[in-house]
């Protein structure tokens, strides 16, 4: 009969209406600022720079190779190479980014920078509360604001971070074996300044980093990015 | 005491008017009634917006607004402040005068409809002999304001929305009138006060509301459909279908003018619900003779709010109709049914008292409803389209 479907529909909504007062399971609402859903592990938003050890500046994995800058489709990454060098996680002397800016208002979260990085230095963050009251400056993050520890990376993407750590440890072990072979052979080159213990790269690099030269000189070189405490209003 | 509570607003008005000089008294009396209408119904509008948002939320298993004040009660206040402080944008190429006048015309016209509604015993602004006629004449003018808005905006969406609105309202005006005519036929008066008084009788404690007769029930259902379409409510909200027309005829309105349109729409809902209540649900009369001690105006307003709740319920349930479905339904189903209902009402009138007229009238209406629903409103199955190209 005409109108039967309307009555059925009305019964359905009436059931919903009454049920939502009785049955808490029905309500799908998550009252956001107070409660939040845990983010899925594969979620991603904007890139960040990984560092090992306690000092963000010394521990940055980035070697300023600028591949990500070139690959970035919307061109939101800006990198300045340093003049001097510092050892990377295997102990090889590398240049580092004197300036590393990402304009997250331009970034489109495509993750291409992460995929092209050969040094596992740039990863995707899950942070999404990035609102600022400054349209231009507030969304242009410098390398200090972008730097996150390896522990943080482990926290947000545990599986992926474990894989990355394993790969880095393998590389490191290979480099050490090569160095040892070189040392066992005619001793012509100075052995690299690496601690002999073969634990995770995070701890070893942290141990080796204090011997980085020209720590103070570097700070003078990059006045645009002082390691100041983050501005208020920025979600850290 | 009970009588005093029932007449409290009337007595209050007379008391205030008593302070005025003789010459001013009729004028002040009218101003007081108008002020009461202008204050009460926007207040109800504020209440209804929050009720609607909460109710719709619950029907969709959401919570609804709950941030402003306890349980989101202050949401209309926040909305009002927001719309007052928003920039009032008038498009450069719009016809500024008509664009400005359209929301005003809507609100004024809708408010005029309340003047003939009896909201309680002795509580009406004017007791017109042709109150129903006046109501429909005024109600038809809302189309004017809607077309003014759509035309003056110089926006394709606005114009399309206005054209849809006018087509829809003209189509549904006919069944709306036709379904109300039966009440006039039985009562023998166009005065809404007389119509309520005719329903304010009781047999065995039960009221003589017209909805409790076969022709009245049918007329009420068709009146409800037509009134929903007339007020542009879902499922007949094609003129403002967001998915197709941005916001329909008020696309180019912002700030307080937009709020006025919103207000006008809800006031239209209230006046239509008030008319439906007056015609079929016994107006201010109590649903049981035993409940007559409750003031009459409480009954009127609770019936209106109940109708509003049903409208919200319908909105939460039904998807929007397509334009051809809308027109088919109006012209091929509702209008023939209202015409039949006129005959049935005449039959009812001339068959005299007795149980036979109940059986005959119900049988005719139900039979035709089932047959017409089966055949006329059958879903058409369109096959795959075949195209013929020019050779």
Summarize the entry for a quick read.
The complex is a heterodimer of chains A (236) and B (391). Chain A is of the alpha+beta class. Chain A has helices at residues 4-22, 56-59, 67-71, 112-116, 143-146, 150-156, 158-184, 201-208, 215-221; strands at residues 47-51, 77-87, 93-103, 122-124, 140-141, 147-149.
What would your notes on this structure say?
The complex is a heterodimer of chains A (236) and B (391). Chain A is an alpha+beta fold and 236 residues long. Chain A contains 9 helices and 6 strands; from the N terminus they run H-E-H-H-E-E-H-E-E-H-E-H-H-H-H. Chain A has a domain of 156 residues: Alpha-Beta Plaits (2-Layer Sandwich). In chain A, the strands form 2 sheets. In chain A, strands 4-1-6 form a 3-stranded mixed β-sheet. Chain A has a 3-stranded antiparallel β-sheet with strand order 2-3-5. In chain A, a hairpin with a 5-residue loop joins strand 2 and strand 3. In chain A, helix 6 packs antiparallel against helix 7. The longest helix of chain A is centred in the C-terminal third of the chain and has 27 residues. The C terminus of chain A is likely disordered. In chain B, 66% of the residues lie in helices and 1% in strands. Chain B has one domain. Chain B is mainly alpha-helical and 391 residues long. A two-stranded antiparallel sheet of chain B has the order 1-2. The radius of gyration of chain B is 23 Å and the shape is globular. Classes of the chains: A alpha+beta (236), B mainly alpha (391). Chains A and B meet through helix 1 of A and helix 3, helix 12 and helix 14 of B.
């Amino acid at each position: 009969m005409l109108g039967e479907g309307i009555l059925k529909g009305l019964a359905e909504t009436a059931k919903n209406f009454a049920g939502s007062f009785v049955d808490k399971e029905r309500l799908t609402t998550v009252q956001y600022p107070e409660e939040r859903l845990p983010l899925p592990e594969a979620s991603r938003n904007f890139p960040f720079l990984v560092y090992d050890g306690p000092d963000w500046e010394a521990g940055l994995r980035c070697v300023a190779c600028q591949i990500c800058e070139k690959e970035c489709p919307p061109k939101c990454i800006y990198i300045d190479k340093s003049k001097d060098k510092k050892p990377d996680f295997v102990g090889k002397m590398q240049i580092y980014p004197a300036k590393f800016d990402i304009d997250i208002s331009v970034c489109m979260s495509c993750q291409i920078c992460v995929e092209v990085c050969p040094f596992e230095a740039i990863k995707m963050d899950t942070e999404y509360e990035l609102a600022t009251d400054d349209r231009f400056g507030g969304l242009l993050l410098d390398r200090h604001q972008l730097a996150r520890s390896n522990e943080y990376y482990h926290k947000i993407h545990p599986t992926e971070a474990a894989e990355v750590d394993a790969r880095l440890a393998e590389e490191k072990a290979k480099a050490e074996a090569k160095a040892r072979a070189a040392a066992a052979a005619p001793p012509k080159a100075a052995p690299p300044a690496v601690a002999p213990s073969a634990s995770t790269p995070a701890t070893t690099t942290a141990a080796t980093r204090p011997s980085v030269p020209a720590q103070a000189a570097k700070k003078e070189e990059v006045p645009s990015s002082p390691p100041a405490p983050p501005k208020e209003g920025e979600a850290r | 005491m009970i009588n005093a509570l029932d007449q409290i607003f009337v007595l209050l008005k007379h008391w205030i008017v008593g302070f005025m000089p003789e010459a001013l008294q009729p004028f002040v009396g009218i101003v007081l009634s108008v002020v009461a209408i202008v204050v009460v119904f926007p207040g109800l509008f504020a209440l209804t917006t929050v009720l609607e948002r909460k109710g719709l939320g619950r029907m969709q298993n959401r919570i609804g607004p709950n941030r402003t004040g306890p349980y989101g009660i202050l949401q209309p206040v926040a909305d009002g402040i927001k719309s007052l402080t928003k920039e009032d944008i008038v498009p450069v190429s719009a016809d500024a005068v008509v664009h400005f006048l359209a929301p005003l015309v809507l609100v004024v016209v809708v408010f005029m409809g309340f003047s003939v509604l009896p909201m309680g015993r002795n509580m009406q602004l004017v007791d017109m002999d042709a109150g129903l006629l006046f109501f429909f004449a005024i109600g038809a003018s809302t189309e004017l304001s809607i077309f003014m808005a759509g035309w003056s905006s110089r926006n394709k969406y606005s114009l399309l929305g206005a054209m849809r609105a006018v087509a829809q309202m003209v189509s549904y005006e006919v069944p709306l009138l036709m379904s109300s005519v039966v009440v006039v036929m039985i009562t023998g008066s166009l005065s809404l006060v007389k119509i309520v008084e005719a329903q304010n009788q009781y047999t065995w404690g039960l009221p003589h509301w017209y909805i409790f007769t076969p022709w009245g029930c049918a007329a009420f259902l068709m009146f409800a459909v037509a009134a929903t379409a007339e007020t542009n409510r879902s499922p007949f909200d094609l003129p403002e279908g967001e998915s197709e027309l941005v916001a329909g005829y008020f696309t180019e309105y912002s700030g307080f003018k937009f709020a006025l349109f919103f207000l006008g729409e809800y006031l239209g809902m209230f006046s239509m619900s008030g008319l439906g209540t007056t015609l079929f649900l016994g107006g201010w009369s109590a649903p049981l003779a035993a409940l007559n001690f409750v003031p009459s105006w409480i009954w009127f307003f609770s019936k209106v709010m109940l109708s509003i709740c049903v409208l919200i319920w319908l909105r939460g349930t039904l998807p929007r109709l397509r334009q051809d479905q809308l027109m088919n339904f109006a012209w091929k189903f509702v209008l023939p049914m209202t015409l039949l209902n006129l005959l049935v009402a005449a039959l009812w009138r001339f068959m005299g008292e007795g149980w036979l007229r109940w059986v005959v009238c119900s049988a005719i209406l139900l039979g035709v409803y089932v047959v017409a629903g089966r055949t006329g409103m059958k879903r058409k199955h369109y096959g795959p389209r075949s195209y013929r190209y020019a050779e």
